[in-house]
Amino acid sequence: MIKQILGRLPRKPSKSADNRELGGASASSLNASISSRKCDLASDGPINANSIPVLDLDGASRFANRGGSKLPPVVNSKLNGSSVSASYEALPAFRDVPGSEKQILFIKKLNLCCTVFDFTDPAKHLKEKDIKRQTLLELVDHVSSASGKFNETIIQEAIKMVSVNLFRSLSPQPRENKVLESFDMEDDEPLMDPAWPHLQIVYEFFLRFVASPETDAKLAKRYIDQSFILKLLDLFDSEDPREREYLKTILHRIYGKFMVHRPFIRKGINNIFFRFIFETEKHNGIAEMLEVLGSIINGFALPLKEEHKLFLIRALIPLHKPKCLSMFHQQLSYCITQFVEKDCKLTDTVIRGLLKYWPITSSSKEVMFLSELEEILEATQPAEFQRCMVPLFRQIARCLSSSHFQVAERALFLWNNEHIENLIKQNRRVILPIIFPALEKNGRNHWNQAVHSLSLNIRKIFSDADPELFEECSLKFQEDEAKLEEIKTKQETTWKRLEEIAASKAVSGK
């Protein structure tokens, strides 16, 4: 009898169990986890079976996307200022229930967190918001310390909770009517979501849930399906940079764990790029999606599939067209360079694509193009360089002749790269006649001293490397200058005669 009575009493949790259940549930530890994940993609490297050791990539690849129980329609449980039900009370902590009941409690806590509060009024539902926040923190900790596979019911309820909280209409941006050229992410304050105190923990929960070895990709893919992925991609247009940072990391993990969804994710990103390039030229998450793609491209197997080459030609290269290129150029340049490093035969395609979209009236974009061009040329082999060097150096000659000193200076800096200088020297008989007039004019009378000095240095490089060729180009330049001067003189004489005829007719008409 005594044993039966003692058996019914709740056991006192051990100190280690207490730490395991709630040790990661504090806001400070959550923030530390978030900040440590800031460079998650950079540290993960390419996405392949070896790059994300915690994920079961091989297991996911063996299953096709088949039918089955789908996520039920989500009930909109948002509280629009109405009084909260009295039943919205905190549930017991995981440490306070026996192990056999933790699964049921987990589901109850997930359902409790499906209530979405209105954060536009910070004074509303303070108690309930705090209950939900603490419950979410407990869920994060429980997923992190879980031992044993999550069953299908738990996966279904977890995805339902994530969907209810995250999938929402993004707040309208206050810059709708501003000119695109004036939009600058560094100067304009981003719009911060007032619901972030809850959204942040939901994102953290979902990230840990996806990355957890206890989440079976075979079961989870029924609920993290194509519809779910599309809604997740739509959230990348959020103006809150904190949200986009989480989305970037989560999409990276989903791509790594669910191999069956990889082509669909690439296609979804591709479609977003198309809309951005050819329709709206307005999207907040292009840089983050390109960052994910940089890791994906790094993991592409060789030889490259035709699908990947088409993506380069039809989406990545045209991304140089929008006026707001500066917002994502660094990430785009990395993706482009990855393709060239993987397959040097793509160099000609990439360079001619850049020349097609080369800016005419934007000197700041020209400087970006020249910087990217240097990275591409550094990965270029001599045979590929020869295929595109004529149109390329015609454009570089125009940059050398630019009245904007930063454009001319950046073009001259190409000679500071040893690999590029060697490529130019090997093909100097083709290149020097193209760029000689620009170098000569800069060396004579360019208004900027830095451009003037750099041009003289490069003239000397060519003169020392091949004095005979340099002399030929110099004579040809002088002949061309003499012809131009002759044409100019003839034009001036013609105009003078026309003016005299017009003046004589005016006098005779009186």
TrEMBL record:
A biological process term (GO) from this entry: signal transduction
Record InterPro entries: ARM-like, ARM-type_fold, PP2A_B56
Principal place of residence: cytoplasm
Subcellular location: Cytoplasm
MF annotations from Gene Ontology: protein phosphatase regulator activity
KW Cytoplasm (keyword) present: yes
Region (Disordered): 1-24
GO cellular component terms listed in the entry, alphabetical order: cytoplasm; protein phosphatase type 2A complex
Pfam families: B56 (PF01603)
Record keywords, A-Z: Cytoplasm
Gene3D superfamilies in the cross-refs: Leucine-rich Repeat Variant
Signal peptide stretch: none
Tree of life domain: Eukaryota
Function, as annotated: The B regulatory subunit might modulate substrate selectivity and catalytic activity, and also might direct the localization of the catalytic enzyme to a particular subcellular compartment.
Protein family (similarity comment): Belongs to the phosphatase 2A regulatory subunit B56 family.
Protein known as: Serine/threonine protein phosphatase 2A regulatory subunit
Annotated source species: Rosa chinensis (China rose)
Lineage of source species: Eukaryota, Viridiplantae, Streptophyta, Embryophyta, Tracheophyta
